[in-house]
Amino acid sequence: MQGLRQIDEETRKSYNLAAEKYFEDFKDEMKQKEYDRAFLDEFSTHFDSTSVICDVGCGPGHIARYVYDKGLNIFGVGISEKCVEVARRENPGMRFRVMDMADLDLADESVDGIISFYSIIHTPKRFQPVLFREFNRVLKMGGRIVVVVKKGDTEGYVEELEGFKTSLYFANFNEEEIRCYPEVNKFRVVFLETRRPYDFEIPVDRIYATGVKVAREMSQMPQGAYLRLHFFGHSFPFHITMLGANGS
Prior knowledge:
Blueprint: H1 4-26, H2 29-32, H3 34-44, E1 53-56, H4 62-68, E2 74-78, H5 81-90, E3 95-98, E4 111-117, H6 128-138, E5 139-150, E6 155-161, E7 164-171, H7 175-184, E8 187-195, E9 206-213, E10 226-231, E11 234-239
Parallel strand pairs: 1-2, 1-4, 2-3, 4-5
Antiparallel strand pairs: 5-9, 6-7, 8-9, 10-11
């Protein structure tokens, strides 16, 4: 069974091959997708010019550009160097960085919002908690995340992307999974809806979700902190001591 780093490396190589073709095929998709525009419009109302928003798995930058044009401070990160190169070229003035969303080079609680449009789909379901823990880490308390995926129960490798021969992992999800991943990782899901595909899209339903960070992951709690455990109507304080990898 491949590890996450190996799978991410295949994603990087696949999108490096297909970056230019991917941009040509999707650069104008927001003009055609009224639902997606409305979804991002609502998301954008929760921020102002002082907010910091991160588009994870940004591809050639067209989703980030839609939000940027609203006057918001957004930057994109992606694992593919070529996609980031295209995003920078096609969106002058915007910021894009090469970064793995499973290991973001961002400070704890440093962003106000996260956009994930079809970016978790290249990560196997067994590794989804890794992504959502990382999203929780970098997002400020009360910050918002939006997630968009294709609906289905299949996952596995495909051998083609935009006409290029690849070995790229794809996962489809159901509504309960897209509710569960954020909630288990300390997000409250405030919106969850499925839409039918447009005529020009691959004929698969799409799932849209919005979550709000309501608590930190345990790994983010400060050493020596006290929490209060509620158990059968009684309240007990307990002390947090984080253990290292060797148990020390």
